[in-house]
């Protein structure tokens, strides 16, 4: 089993891109980790771009039941609850765990109805690039909780 992170386009902000690589490296100490970046259609009108990105995520995640989709409209958890949520998946799920972050325009309401798990990092809206970093840090933090490793709490 591995953890996959899927999103449209590479992170452009160089300091964020560096942080992203650092956290992926840190998470890889605990579990195999794959970042899947696909090219979006940035020149298309907004609704077409969103539909394209949703299709690409769906194609790449395999089973939608394994998909954890990031949206401020999803379920909020504290870091300990999130660690338990992840631990349960690690213990009982045989397929890969897949997280997907939207592009700058997010997802459509219809996509949210497809049965994947919706996860919120906060009720506040972050840029897609910030949301990637916060997600990665929380996944890393969850592993330090699961493995009882010293980390700032
Ligand atoms: C700029 S936001 C798009 C916001 C848009 N209003 C929406 O409803 O999706 C871009 C992406 O960042 C992620 N994101 C931003 N804030 C988030 C939050 N508080 N919790 C979870 N994901 C978030 C989501 O994946 C979102 O699709």
TrEMBL record:
Keywords: Cytoplasm, Methyltransferase, rRNA processing, S-adenosyl-L-methionine, Transferase
Catalytic activity reported: pseudouridine(1915) in 23S rRNA + S-adenosyl-L-methionine = N(3)-methylpseudouridine(1915) in 23S rRNA + S-adenosyl-L-homocysteine + H(+)
Keyword Cell division: no
Enzyme class of the recorded protein, top EC level: transferase
Listed GO MF terms: rRNA (pseudouridine-N3-)-methyltransferase activity
Matches recorded under Pfam families: SPOUT_MTase (PF02590)
Identification of the protein by name: Ribosomal RNA large subunit methyltransferase H
Gene Ontology cellular-component annotations: cytoplasm
PANTHER family on file: METHYLTRANSFERASE (PTHR33603), RIBOSOMAL RNA LARGE SUBUNIT METHYLTRANSFERASE H (PTHR33603:SF1)
EC nos: 2.1.1.177
Family stated for the protein in its record: Belongs to the RNA methyltransferase RlmH family.
Cellular location(s): Cytoplasm
Matching InterPro entries: Alpha/beta_knot_MTases, RlmH-like, tRNA_m1G_MTases_N
Subunit field text: Homodimer.
The keyword rRNA processing is assigned to this record: yes
Residues that, per the record, bind S-adenosyl-L-methionine: 70, 102, 121-126
Function: Specifically methylates the pseudouridine at position 1915 (m3Psi1915) in 23S rRNA.
């Amino acid at each position: 089993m591995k953890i996959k992170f899927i999103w449209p386009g590479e992170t452009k902000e160089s300091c964020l891109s560096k942080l992203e690589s650092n956290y992926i490296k840190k998470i890889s100490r605990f579990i195999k980790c794959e970042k899947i970046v696909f090219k979006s259609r940035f020149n298309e009108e907004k609704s077409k771009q969103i539909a394209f990105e949703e299709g690409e995520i769906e194609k790449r995640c395999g089973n939608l039941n394994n998909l954890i989709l990031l949206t401020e409209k999803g379920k909020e958890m504290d870091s300990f609850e999130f660690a338990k949520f992840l631990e349960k998946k690690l213990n009982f799920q045989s397929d890969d765990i897949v997280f997907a972050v939207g592009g700058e325009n997010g997802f459509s309401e219809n996509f949210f109805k497809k049965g994947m798990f919706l996860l919120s990092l906060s009720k506040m809206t972050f840029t897609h690039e910030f949301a990637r970093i916060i997600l990665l840090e929380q996944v890393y933090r969850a592993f330090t909780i699961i493995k009882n490793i010293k980390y700032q709490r």
